[in-house]
Write a structure and sequence with these properties.
Distance between the termini: 70 Å
Pfam families: bact-PGI_C, PG_isomerase_N
Keywords: Isomerase
GO molecular function, one term: carbohydrate derivative binding
Organism: Deinococcus budaensis
Number of helices: 12
CATH class of the domain at 143-271: Alpha Beta
Family: Belongs to the PGI/PMI family.
Shape: globular
Low-confidence stretches: 300-308, 316-342
Helix content: 40-55%
Amino acid sequence: MKLLSLLERLPGSYAGPTQPEPGPHGLIGVGEGALAAHLAATLIPGTLTRSGTQFVVSSADAADAARDYADLAEVAGAAVRRVSTGGAVDDVDVLVPGGVLTAYHAAQYLAHASGHADQAADAETLLAELRGRCSPGVEDGNPARDLAWTLWGRLPLLLAAPDAEALPHAWQALLARVGKTLSVPVLGDPLALVTGAFEAQHEKGDAKVALLLGDPDPALLIAREVLDSRIDEVVAVPYPEGVNPAHPGGYAAQLALWYFGAWVAAYLAERYGLDAGDLPVLTRAQAVLAGESGPDTLTLGGAGGEGGRPPRFDRETPEDDLDASDREEDFDEDLDEDREEP
């Protein structure tokens, strides 16, 4: 099924366990579970716990690391809940769907299991509201499609306040995996980076757009002023309307902005004429790491075919992309202008 159809069906589709697990809680994510764990970190800030419940979120390609973390938690005295997209039966307590949407299903499980069912419900409300604004049937005023157009042909810089650092992680993953586009998360102190990054090479600010994800803090507002003078455009991507005032930048708001990023990335792939689904090379790589096939099956490939480069997409066609006849014609015209009449 196409990703756009899956995104339309996503709100309210969580069908996993909802009972809370004994606290205190610890949370570690590896493989495809890393993003879900990052998004749920506002609910479960602790990494390892010696009692209560240790959540280990993973995928089959990261089973070895997940198993080590689970064993360590059990030795320390915690009960372990293994959340995974697949693998050996003994390595999976809660099975979640694999792929781009793993983050939603695993994160919603973590919200329920950590005793935050109210925030899981808030997230579903926000996702449903976004679906009504971002679905393919919304032609005019579709914020996801409009933002995809803004990003087309540009290199996005991703910034967020320290308490929302999961968002640059989420958007970089979505823009790469779904939108087939490179983006650069700006982590740590944004002021040191943005004030110096373009000073020696001003042209590096060309074709760049910065996305301020979530609610900005004072440092991010100053960084925006600096970036306004150094790159093409700065765009604020706030949390959607309807966020619970009790958790203004919490789990539900961040999961909703992940969902919005998935819509943007899907429309960006559409703008480039590419499939928003996973490339075959990713599937093969995950199978090799999961021990399901040998490394000899892993070959590089992309939208341009096995081992080939995808086509180049630029807002303006550079001279290098002109065919030989066009360049020769322009060269001849220049020569004609320089000749002197006898």
